[in-house]
């Protein structure tokens, strides 16, 4: 059964953030809030956890397109090819924010990303994932929680999310109701921003 932690962005308790980080360090899969929707994630460097995440999504690991969640832009050089100054300035203007930016990947990505020429980078404007990544010391990965409802595309109620994923994940962070609009996906691989999916973020 998944443990539920109530952590609110107005006053996130460090000991609870530490508990979430410990779950990730032990190879756990967690559900956590962001500045858009609730997402499922794990430690980017734990291959078994990545396999579990892919299994939950019902896809093969080599076909995944999990976003990398950073707490700032300092991790970019770890996973992406060198980017132009103008592109970096563009990123700094829009992050943290409700965007997923597609950039050219380098060869330092973990094995779960083997063969991927691009990678999606997110820096959510939300204190909880920022604190988790900062305390973990490196990024986590993220994938959306879709709803079975025909009208609502994404699940917003953390209690219902916890009920649905109770036996699939190790921890659910309840931060109150989430949004129902995902991030805006922007491809920057050509040097010029190209919107792939319009979401919450407005360029």
Fold and architecture overview:
This protein is α/β, with parallel strands linked by helices. Helix content is 27%, strand content 21%. The chain has a ten-stranded mixed sheet, with helices on both faces. Strand 2 (30-32) and strand 3 form a beta hairpin. The N and C termini lie far apart (41 Å). It comes from Epilithonimonas pallida. This is tRNA threonylcarbamoyl adenosine modification protein, Sua5/YciO/YrdC/YwlC family. Residues 14-201 form the YrdC-like domain.
Key phrases:
single chain, 203 residues, alpha/beta, 10-stranded mixed sheet, 6 helices, 10 strands, 27% helix, globular, SUA5_domain, Sua5-like_dom
Helix proportion = 25-40%
Widest sheet, order of strands:
1-8-2-3-7-4-6-5-9-10
Mean pLDDT: 91
The description of the largest β-sheet is: 10 strands, mixed
Through-space gap between termini: 41 Å
What letter string, H or E per element, gives the SSE order?
EHEEHEHHEEHEHEEE
Percent in strands: 15-25%
Per DSSP, the total helix count is 6
**Assembly type of the shown chains?**
single chain
Low-confidence stretches: none
InterPro entries: DHBP_synth_RibB-like_a/b_dom, Sua5-like_dom, SUA5_domain
Protein name: tRNA threonylcarbamoyl adenosine modification protein, Sua5/YciO/YrdC/YwlC family
Domain YrdC-like: 14-201
Pfam family, one: Sua5_yciO_yrdC
Quick description:
This protein is of the alpha/beta class. The protein has 6 helices and 10 strands.
Please give the structural blueprint.
Elements: E1 3-6, H1 14-25, E2 30-32, E3 39-43, H2 47-57, E4 67-69, H3 76-79, H4 85-94, E5 99-104, E6 118-122, H5 127-136, E7 140-144, H6 158-164, E8 171-174, E9 184-187, E10 194-197
Helix pairs in contact: 1-5
